[in-house]
Amino acid sequence: MKKSFTFITALFLATSLCFAQGSEQEIKEDFVPSVLNQPGKEYPMVNSQGYARFKVEAPDAESVVVSLGLGGQGGTKLTKGEDGFWTGTTAGPMDEGFHYYHLTIDGGVFNDPGAQNYYGSIRWESGIEIPAHDQEFYALKNVPHGNVQQILFPSPSTDISRRAFVYTPPGYYKNTSKRYPVLYLQHGWGEDETAWMNQGRANLIMDNLIAEGKIDPFIIVNTYGMTNEIKFGGLRNFDIKPFQTVLVDELIPYVDSNFRTIADQEHRAMAGLSMGGMETKMITLNRPDVFSYYALLSGGVYAPDDVKDHENLKLIFISSGSKERPEFVINSVKELKAAGYNAVSYVSEGTAHEFQTWRRSLYQLAPLLFQD
Amino acid sequence: MKKSFTFITALFLATSLCFAQGSEQEIKEDFVPSVLNQPGKEYPMVNSQGYARFKVEAPDAESVVVSLGLGGQGGTKLTKGEDGFWTGTTAGPMDEGFHYYHLTIDGGVFNDPGAQNYYGSIRWESGIEIPAHDQEFYALKNVPHGNVQQILFPSPSTDISRRAFVYTPPGYYKNTSKRYPVLYLQHGWGEDETAWMNQGRANLIMDNLIAEGKIDPFIIVNTYGMTNEIKFGGLRNFDIKPFQTVLVDELIPYVDSNFRTIADQEHRAMAGLSMGGMETKMITLNRPDVFSYYALLSGGVYAPDDVKDHENLKLIFISSGSKERPEFVINSVKELKAAGYNAVSYVSEGTAHEFQTWRRSLYQLAPLLFQD
Q1: Does domain B2-12+137-368 have CATH number 3.40.50.1000?
Q2: CB pair distance less than 8 Å for A63 and B61
Q3: What pLDDT score does A10 carry?
Q4: Residue B58 near chain A (CB below 8 Å)
Q5: What's the pLDDT score for residue A257?
């Protein structure tokens, strides 16, 4: 794969506090390996309260610090034991769901050898999963599974073959006459086209919703949003055109000619998280003829005036975590509704600018899509 | 994804010497970033002679060693500069192609933050690519690309949904009446079902062969060979049955009912590298009714007696690197041919028990498959 990706900041500036409230409790010793660990690795571990515990071998190191921890206090400092292993537990319970992290060992940044890696912060970071009360909706279950396929599509505007992932729902290969609507779903700054399936578990969310009969099957497409060359603070000068060209003029026609899509505006949605929400807003405003469903997940809002000339606009969905600035989400949806639009807000309780917010947002959004 | 994978040793015990001959030359200062680096990362670098150069930040570390290096000399020890970065160059040129590696920092094993990760040695290792004189055959080119799709197939015998990757050739989704033969292609010990597409670039090898008209398109399937629970030395007690059940009784029927395959023995091949070759041999001997094409890549040999009752056996392909024990490959194919079998040997010049041998082996094997 060609890769020369590099970034941006979120519209809702994330709080890096990812601790739940009230950390004065006693720590329960029911730690189990994080489900995102590398095969056979015991650490990192998590307990039923949301604490995380780490254990890293580095017998001659002077300092090992985990980037997860109470905001402003420099993460979790590990302590060296006589066996050469460094161990430590977060000072408080973590928010439910997925967190990126890394280790700082003697001043250098490395990943935890026990954890699998996920692309975020423009690097492959370690990942840890804090069990969530609602984790069933993205669990791997014994239900029919859709496929996630890597496609390499030609992109004359950038002169390379670009990568996208396409989720095709269960049954796609059996009933070869049925055609499907498509959701184009974008990652955030520092991430890439792997984020929604790996961190977001979008394919499992869809499999489970379909198995429960809660949605009509549709296709999801993720590609790289070219976000990572954007520097913090450079948003005002952000030029959406290169990505808009790739998405609208290159990827969509490729998907429509290589998959059994319903290739019209009314059966096409665009959504994005964080920076991908900003891209969704920009592209839907520049090209109101392409999508009928718009969704911003922790990624800005629409004002009624923004979309006043949009024909065939079926839904605006706006969400965030309760630890972000949910009042913006709620107020903008109120205004949109007052102006006569079909707008829906969703606030993920107890989560911040992280993937649990976006997993839940997708779970809420999917049943609302393509219902007209 | 469920993962509780764990392993085995190769039949051809790999030499861990992966240096090319003659390291007394002057080092050319034409280093460029390895193509497998993380986006935007300058190091590790490689030069036109096959030397690799590393640069890792760890200002307070006492020791940083790269696992790549002259066999028996403990790899490449890096030297700390005043800027807090450790740097170093391999003592000699490396063999062409892909190499796994890791860092030992103050006694602990970590990955190089500049490199992407690849699953091998039952851990996600760093990967580096030494440019090869023949790298065009696995390069990403402007040709029609097939898709690589993750499937989750039900496995009653192991009580989970298991993962496989399926390569469907270009055109698979356009001409929806055409059916294809299938190659079941297995990874080695310490690896998993991601190896052939990530390290092996099997999809790009196929895309290029198809674009050049050198092969008729076929499907490739990779799944986890359950190899990683096997300890070194435990081969004699290896029980192939659990994996054989998954492959033959669960995966093949799933693929045949979910993809447009030609679902008979004459249009089905099995191949594997290293430990995957041992599995290929065991399964083809236990179930001579399932496959018509057998291929062992650095993974053992067949004797004429092994296959004497096999009906519809169309081809035996046996290969290895020239730095392994190619005489076994050549002699066994001679014997097979003398006994009247259609057998082909291939020796990859200048390579050892590594992925360049297996990329080249696939490139040689593919045109021989499904020709009857």
Answers
A1: no
A2: no
A3: 30
A4: yes
A5: 94
Residue among B270, B311, B268 at smallest CA distance from B288: B311
Report percent pLDDT > 90 for chain A. 86
Give pTM, 2 decimals. Answer: 0.91
Distances in whole angstroms, Cα of residue B307 to Cα of each of A90, B296, B301, B310, B340:
59, 14, 11, 5, 11
Locate the chain B residue with the closest alpha carbon to A60: B106
Of A60, A153, A166, the CB nearest to B62: A60
Helix runs in chain B, H state only: 195-198, 202-211, 241-244, 252-258, 275-286, 326-338, 355-365
Tens-place pLDDT, residues B142-198: 999 999 999 999 999 999 999 999 999 999 988 888 999 999 999 999 999 999 999
What's at B331, amino acid-wise?
A: N
Query: Considering only residues 69 to 128 of chain B, which have any Cβ-Cβ distance to chain A shorter than 8 Å?
Result: 84, 103, 105-111, 113, 116-117, 122-124
pLDDT at A188 over 90: yes
Query: How many other CB atoms sit within 10 Å of the CB of residue B108?
Result: 21
Distance CA(B330)–CA(B72), nearest Å, equals: 29
- Of A167, A217, A182, nearest to B152 (Cα)? A167
A109-115: average pLDDT: 98
CB-nearest to B117 from A107, A117, A151 is A117
User: Looking at domain A26-94+97-130, does it have CATH number 2.60.40.10?
Assistant: yes
User: Encoding tokens for residue B331?
Assistant: 């002699």
ipTM of this predicted complex? 0.88
Q: Which two tokens stand for residue A140?
A: 């791997």
Q: Is A84–B107 a contact, with Cβ atoms under 8 angstroms apart?
A: yes
pLDDT in tens, A217-255: 999 999 999 988 766 566 677 889 999 999 999 999 999
CA distances from B196 to A325, B95, B98, B118, B187 (A): 45, 19, 12, 11, 7
Domain segments of chain B as ranges: 2-12+137-368, 26-94+97-130
Is the pLDDT at B250 greater than 60, yes or no? yes
**Percentage of chain B exceeding pLDDT 90:** 86
A254 close contact with B: CB closer than 8 A = no
SS3 (DSSP) at B100: strand
Average pLDDT over residues A287-305: 98
The average pLDDT across A352-366 equals 98
Nearest Cα to Cα of residue A66 among A130, A125, A132: A125
d(CA B123, CA B100) in angstroms, rounded, equals 10
User: d(Cα B167, Cα B149) in Å, to the nearest integer?
Assistant: 6
Chain A CB contacts of B208 below 8 Å: none
**Torsion angles phi and psi, residue B71, rounded to 5:** -55, 135
A52-57, strands of its sheet edge to edge: A32-33, A45-46, A52-57, A85-89, A79-80
Nearest chain B Cα distance for residue A106, angstroms: 4
Give contacts of B 293-312 with A, CB under 8 A: none
Q: What is the per-residue pLDDT for B122? A: 93
Instruction: Answer for the pair B149, B114: CB distance below 8 angstroms, yes or no.
Output: no
A2-12+137-368 and A26-94+97-130 share one fold:
no
Two tokens, residue A318: 């706006």
Question: What is residue A105's predicted lDDT score, i.e. its pLDDT?
Answer: 97
What's the sign of the alpha-carbon dihedral B245, B204, A158, A192?
A: positive
Residue A152 pLDDT greater than 50, yes or no: yes
Mean pLDDT of chain B, nearest integer: 91
- A103-105 β-sheet, strand order: A76-77, A64-66, A103-105, A108-110
pLDDT, tens only, B197-217: 999 999 999 999 999 999 999
Cβ separation B113–A116 shorter than 8 A: no
